[in-house]
């Protein structure tokens, strides 16, 4: 089997069963290994065999959790946004109004990604994959972003709040794709997000 290919038909890949604590621990080790390899060498450095060796699990175990390298990296992106959500909960955003608070949250996210550009580009590249597993991970990423933004926009009705967060997510993703392709720098990503926050949120500031 090729290093990053799918296993033969019949293997239970891409399923999301109820995990035992041991299975959850192995899954976490695999995601952490993807973080480590991606941070060191970028997208091309994340090979399933190397992930298995780094995480100290069997190669077949990876394919029982992830359909492909892109699926694994997309799950790593989901994990990353979940950690951002948790950090925001521990240290609320700064700012006198919802616009400034959302900018503060997004600036934190951008600063984290800018510190590890190789890993960030790997995650963004994986999120653009048509892999079915990536689509499911994308839903988790959007959910984490909503969890971060909902308290900031709590003064708005649910539909307006959802619309603003959806458009912000699209702007962020588009700006990251442009950056990952080498067509802009991370300061421009932040500027695009600031502008989107001012346009989308400022009219609704209390």
From TrEMBL:
**InterPro entries per record:** Homeodomain-like_sf, HTH-type_TetR-like_transc_reg, HTH_TetR, KstR_C
Q: What are the DNA-binding region positions?
A: 47-66
Q: Which domain of life is it from?
A: Bacteria
Residue ranges of domain HTH tetR-type in the record:
24-84
Single Gene Ontology MF annotation: DNA-binding transcription factor activity
Q: Where do the record's region annotations for Disordered lie?
A: 1-21
Q: Name one Pfam family in it.
A: TetR_C_20
Ordered alphabetically, the record's keywords are: DNA-binding
What PANTHER family does the record tag this protein with? HTH-TYPE TRANSCRIPTIONAL REGULATOR RUTR, HTH-TYPE TRANSCRIPTIONAL REPRESSOR KSTR
What is the protein's given name?
A: Putative HTH-type transcriptional repressor KstR
């Amino acid at each position: 089997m090729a290093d990053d290919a799918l296993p033969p038909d019949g293997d239970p890949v891409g399923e999301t069963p109820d995990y035992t604590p041991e299975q959850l621990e192995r899954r976490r080790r695999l995601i952490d290994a993807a973080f480590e390899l991606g941070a060191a060498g970028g997208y091309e450095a994340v090979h399933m065999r190397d992930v298995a060796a780094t995480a100290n699990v069997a190669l077949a175990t990876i394919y029982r959790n992830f359909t492909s390298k892109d699926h694994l990296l997309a799950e790593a992106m989901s994990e990353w946004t979940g950690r951002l959500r948790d950090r925001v909960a521990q240290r609320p955003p700064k700012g006198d109004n919802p616009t400034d608070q959302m900018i503060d949250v997004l600036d934190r996210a951008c600063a984290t990604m800018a510190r590890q550009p190789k890993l960030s580009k790997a995650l963004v590249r994986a999120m653009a994959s048509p892999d079915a597993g990536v689509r499911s991970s994308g839903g988790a990423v959007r959910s984490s972003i909503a969890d971060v933004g909902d308290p900031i926009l709590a003064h708005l009705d649910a539909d307006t709040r959802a619309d603003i967060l959806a458009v912000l997510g699209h702007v962020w993703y588009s700006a990251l794709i442009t950056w990952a392709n080498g067509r802009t720098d991370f300061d421009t990503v932040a500027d695009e997000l600031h502008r989107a926050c001012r346009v989308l949120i400022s009219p609704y500031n209390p």
